[in-house]
Amino acid sequence: MLLGAVLVLLLLGGAGPASAHAALRGTDPADAAVLKSAPRDITLTFTESVGLLDDSFRVFDPDNRRVRTGEPQHAAGRSDTARVTLPAELGEGTFTVAWRVVSADSHPVSGAFTFSVGKPSPTTAAVNPGPAQDPATAGLYDIARYAAYLAAALFIGTAAFVLVCRPPDTAPLRKPLVAGWWTLVASTVVLLVLRAPYEAGTGPATALDPSALARTLTGRPGLLLVARLALLATAAVLLVRARRRPLSRVTLASAAALAVGLALTWAAAEHASAGIQVPLAITSSVLHLLAMAVWLGGLTALLTLLHRTVLPASVVTRFSRVAFTAVTVLVVTGVYQSWRGLGSWTTLTGTTYGRLLLLKLAAVTLLLTAASYSRRWTARPAAAAVGERVPEMAGGPPLPDPAPDPAPELEPELEPDVSSARGLRRSVLAEVAVGVVVLVITTVLTGTVPGRAEAEAAQSGPSATGIAVASVTMVPFDLGTPGAQGKVQVTLDPGRVGDNSVEAVVFGPDGGLSTVPELRISFTLPSQKIGPLDTKVTDKGGYWATDAFNLPLPGTWTMKVTVRVSEVDQVSETREVRIER
Fold first, then answer.
1. What are the helix (H) ranges across 277-351?
2. What is the CA radius of gyration of the chain?
3. Taking the CB of residue 547, how many other CB atoms lie within 10 A of it?
4. Cα dihedral 365→367→368→370 (10° resolution)
5. Which residues on adjacent β-strands are paired with residue 103?
6. 135 — phi, psi (to 5°)?
7. Per DSSP, what are the bridge partners of residue 489?
8. Measured in whole angstroms, how far is the alpha carbon of residue 71 from the centre of its chain?
9. Contact present, 528 and 555 (Cβ < 8 Å)
10. How far is CA 267 from CA 92, 188, 295, in A?
């Protein structure tokens, strides 16, 4: 079951690019902007707080040489910004900015954009968001995250089952309890070691660098992982003492405090730690995680005991009540967290986060269906529900309640007991199986951009990944005569339906800027028989541009560029340009 769940996690997690939770609102200078003078600094604004790395900004000049910059810092004390100062003598031309930060919920975010000083220029620097997620590091990190969730459910849920339901024989539960503790410790250590390469986008081997671990221990995610290890050490001591002494209120209170502390190490490092209503969100996240652990881990403990020993009806009844409470908490906190993550109904189907949430809702529905069957079995006669054998009577029914035909009632006395126990085991097994799937989807959700943040970023302009949304197209031309070759770089910003700015730069055969007497650019949408629409670009002194050109519909447009290099020599070239809504 664990192997299958991990495979599902890898399939879901590998279905698209790595997601993070801080979306880029805007940049200053703006993407593809042409400035009269060099800016003194670069500022990025995000939808939530971000952490900075030593290499958060890399700025490249038109010749692809790295520009010396200051230390990355937040702007004016605002944690949702990132700023870096530039040298006084920056020069002219097109500059490329690659950036990488860590969102408040511990996931790295990267992107890139360009801006020009004076006028645009040819640049050999590729617009690259920096090091992408290393597949090996990302895969190991995601597996460790899932293992940690699963181990937390097993450890906390089994312990809660022992403390609250009080089964007479707890020996069969020692192995799952110990396995959960060790798995949680091991996965936490892996997360701690891989934290630095995960943030930097490098391979697992870089985790061996002592400075990498030291850097991790100075950040909030690293400190929370260390706190989790300390809480697990305390829990181990408490478990050893509990085996030697009878349970007391102090033991129960200590166990509850440890469980809340462990849940906080997740809540304070993920979705709940950023965005709106953070205190309420963290409280809801803690309750959600604990309810999940008590239910799923308790189901595993119940299934283990049903297979290993005869279980008193009182134990099943207590767990049934605890499970009902846990389900109620899961529903209430789940509704709140869904509203907080989505923000609107449109993001439920229009974002990856919303679609995953629908998938989780379907899985939870199946889980509740299986739980209802389990509850029906526990509602049957106590002895029959849990597999206790009822001694057969030697004679007929008691005298006060005579029955006309006692024989048919005596023969099946033992059979309902066996079938009921078998039915309870099957329904609980189904609950555990579907619960693991829900846990997988939950883990994937914690690595996906919330619909609210994605919608906010889309309204602000740049995409959630931070990659420049402007459309840049290179159009080579050749008139067939010496010196009459070159290319035109056409920038369409933002490259979407509606008003766009158009900028065009002509480069000669040597790669340098070239001056031409006339340049015309038009767009046609053949599928809708629209166009040609003339952009009406004008000479701005070294480049051609217009600030207002409207593209009314999305689709694949045909861009026609006509370059006249003399009174009689001109050439037209076409390229397809995709315009999004």
1. 278-308, 313-342, 346-350
2. 32
3. 9
4. 130
5. 50
6. -60, -40
7. 474, 505
8. 28
9. yes
10. 47, 15, 18
Spatial neighbors of 341 by CB under 8 A, at least 6 apart, are: 271, 353, 357, 450, 451, 452
Burial class (CB in 10 A: 0-12, 13-18, 19+), 412: exposed
CA distances from 341 to 50, 173, 351, 355, 528 (A): 18, 37, 11, 12, 38
pLDDT in tens, 194-242: 988 888 778 888 888 888 788 888 888 889 999 999 999 999 988 887 7
Integer Cα distance of 556 and 553 in angstroms? 10
The amino acid that residue 225 corresponds to is: L
Q: Write the pLDDT tens digit of every residue in 130-159.
A: 445 677 888 898 889 889 988 999 999 999
Query: CA of 499: how far to CAs of 209, 436, 520, 553, in Å?
Result: 50, 48, 18, 11
What predicted TM-score, i.e. pTM, was given to this entire model?
0.60
Residue 95 CB neighbours (<10 A): 26
Residue with tokens 């697992």: 204
Q: Which two tokens stand for residue 126?
A: 């590729």
C-beta of residue 162 within 8 angstroms of C-beta of residue 301: yes
Tell me how far apart the alpha carbons of residues 385 and 310 are, in angstroms, rounded to a whole number.
11
Q: What is the pLDDT of residues 250-261, one digit of tens each?
A: 677 888 899 999
Tokens 């800027």, residue?
513
